[in-house]
Amino acid sequence: MPRSVNSVASRARRKKILKLTRGQFGRRKNVWTVAKNSYEKGQLYAYRDRRTKKRNFRALWIVRINAAVRPFGMSYSVFMGKLHQNNIEINRKVLADLALNNPDAFKAIVEKVQA
């Protein structure tokens, strides 16, 4: 019995990966083994960095809030502590956005916390 190989499916599988690596540098875009490894590594980085992105943004929001409350004579930790004491439940993302784009509203929150 002759050997049966499904070259149609094999080629389709390779073409799919090569299409996904289009735009990469050097042999990563057109050599099958290099492209396959590059694609798999890229998927691992994407998975990992979806989690890292959340950490990075939280750190950015904290830095922005800290910078915004310093002129009022408070540190970030004191400000957040007073927010919780006064039962004001605004998350860091919204606070950082207010501090950056709407300083009057942020100032009102700080004054309410200080009172």
Question: How would you sum up this structure, described in words?
Answer:
This protein has a single domain, classed as Ribosomal protein L20, C-terminal domain (c-terminal domain of poly(a) binding protein, Orthogonal Bundle), CATH 1.10.1900.20. The chain has helices at residues 7-20, 32-69, 76-85, 92-101, 103-114. The radius of gyration is 26 Å and the shape is rod-shaped. It contains five helices and no strands. The chain is an all-alpha fold and 115 residues long. The longest helix has 38 residues, at 32-69. Helix 1 (7-20) runs parallel beside helix 2 and helix 2 crosses helix 4.
SSE order and pairing:
Elements (H helix, E strand, L loop, with lengths): L6 H14 L11 H38 L6 H10 L6 H10 L1 H12 L1
Helix pairs in contact: 1-2, 2-4, 4-5
Classify the helix fraction into a percent range: over 70%
Name of the CATH architecture: Orthogonal Bundle
CATH H-level name... which superfamily? Ribosomal protein L20, C-terminal domain
N-to-C order of helices and strands: HHHHH
**Mean of the pLDDT scores?**
94
The figure for the number of domains is 1
